[in-house]
Amino acid sequence: VITAAQPGQAPAGMAVGSFTSVSLEPPLIAFLPDRGSSSWPKIEQAGKFCVNVLSADQEQICRRFATKMPDKFAGLAWRPASSGAPIIEGVVAWVACEIESVQPAGDHYVVIGRVRELRLEKPGLPLLFYQGGYGRFLPLSMAAGEAPGLGDHLRLVDLVRDQMEAVSEELSCQCVAWAQIADELVILAHAGISSRRGASTLAGARLPFVPPLGSPWVAWGSDDLRRHWLAQIKDPNERSDYEARLASVVERGCSVGIPNPAHREFSRLLEQSAQSRASAAAASDFRRILEGLVYDPAELPTDDPGAVRIVSVPVLDRASKVRLVLTIYGFPRPTTDGDLQRIVDLARAAGNLATAHVRASY
Ligand SMILES: Cc1cc2nc3c(=O)[nH]c(=O)nc-3n(C[C@H](O)[C@H](O)[C@H](O)COP(=O)(O)O)c2cc1C
User: Fold this and answer.
1) 89 CA distance to ligand 1 middle (Å)
2) Among 359, 19, 23, 7, which Cα is nearest to 160's?
3) Quick check: CB of 39 below 6 Å from ligand 1?
4) Phi then psi for 47, rounded to 5 degrees?
5) Which protein residue has the closest C-alpha to ligand 1 atom 9?
6) HEC string of the chain?
7) Average pLDDT of the residues in 14-20
8) d(CA 16, ligand 1 centre) in Å
9) Which residue, 86, 145, 220, 293, could crosslink 3 as a Cys pair with Cβ 3.0–4.6 Å?
């Protein structure tokens, strides 16, 4: 929705689908109003406008701004950008511009705007319009938005995206790619669609790199990393237990997780962290939840292959350093040892292919 306001007059606004980026240097965008639009002359007169990228739940707002009703802003919550142009509450992002040029083009105008101010308001999905219907983007995979320090890691994700999408389709599961960045584990990308309504992407979630989290990095990592990780276990008697778990990870070629109620709380924290882009460690009960998670038991429960619900595999570079970890979860519950073996084999195959792709560049 393109909005504009002038002192002493009601604000103007219109829904447009024709919005595009034009130039980065200088920052220019464009949209194309119809010559018959009654809102466009008001926007042109204001000389400034704001592009509001509606969120997936704002269909009614889009419909309203596609009508010719006299006061499209009645009862709508909004605040002015520095230029005064309305920012509609609940949008995914907004871009405030000054009009740079207006060119006639058939029965439309091409309006170029110079970007003066912009913000990503929230990490949700945008509203889409296609063949006369409204909908939302169902991502095959989604990467964490740009954040400081993630640049090189997001290039790595591009190298493994195909494997993430293939394995999530093959196993009807979800797949995330993690990186260890300093003392944190960051979910860089998420592929696959949750069957749970309202489930959101985990891309962007951050967790502390403390046991039992991150065993694949440690299992294939340096002695220094192993010492650093194990040192965070308070009870020295437990450390030998963790050594045995790390050995089982290398032996199996993957790390496995056996969910329990603590995992449900953990998943909830992960979703929260992905939404806020803040570390889940901030949650006060985080340590208690971590202690309840079960990863990499020495023996897998042979009588219950369905107990394994999470499988993680490493993606190595040429120096055999773990660059990423791919974790799959949400696959249909395995009912036989054969089912479980197939899942583990497919996860490992995805890890091996991803490793081959990464090794071509790193
Ligand atoms: C999804 C969608 C996309 C639209 N895209 C454009 C567009 O790119 N340009 C345009 O002039 N009108 C577009 N419209 C129609 C305008 O929203 C509508 O004609 C206009 O706002 C009518 O009111 P007005 O006279 O106040 O401008 C679109 C409408 C919808 C629902």
Assistant:
1) 20
2) 359
3) yes
4) 80, -10
5) 33
6) CEEECCCCCCCEEECCCCEEEEECCCCEEEECCECCCCCHHHHHHHCEEEEEECECCCHHHHHHHCCCCCCCCCCCCEEECCCCCEEECCCCEEEEEEEEEEEEECCEEEEEEEEEEEEECCCCCEEEEECCEEEECCCCEEECCCCCCCHHHHHHHHHHHHHHHHHHHHCCCEEEEEEEECCEEEEEEEECCCCCCCCCCCCCCEEECCCCCCHHHHHCCCHHHHHHHHCCCCCHHHHHHHHHHHHHHHHHCCEEECCCHHHHHHHHHHHHHHHHCCEHHHCCCHHHHHHHCCECCCCCCCCCHHHCCEEEEEEECCCCCEEEEEEEECCCCCCCHHHHHHHHHHHHHHHHHHHHHHHCCC
7) 97
8) 5
9) 86
The pLDDT tens digits of the residues spanning 31-50 come to 999 999 999 999 999 999 99
Give the pLDDT confidence of 67-98 residue by residue, as tens digits.
999 899 999 999 999 999 999 999 999 999 99
**d(Cα 255, Cα 344) in Å, to the nearest integer?**
10
Q: Which atom of ligand 1 is nearest to the CA of 62?
A: 31
The predicted model scores a pTM of: 0.70
Cis link prior to 212 (omega < 30° from 0)?
yes
For residue 337, the CA-to-ligand 1 centroid distance in Å is 57
What pLDDT does 148 receive? Answer: 65
Q: Is the CB of 43 under 6 A from ligand 1?
A: no
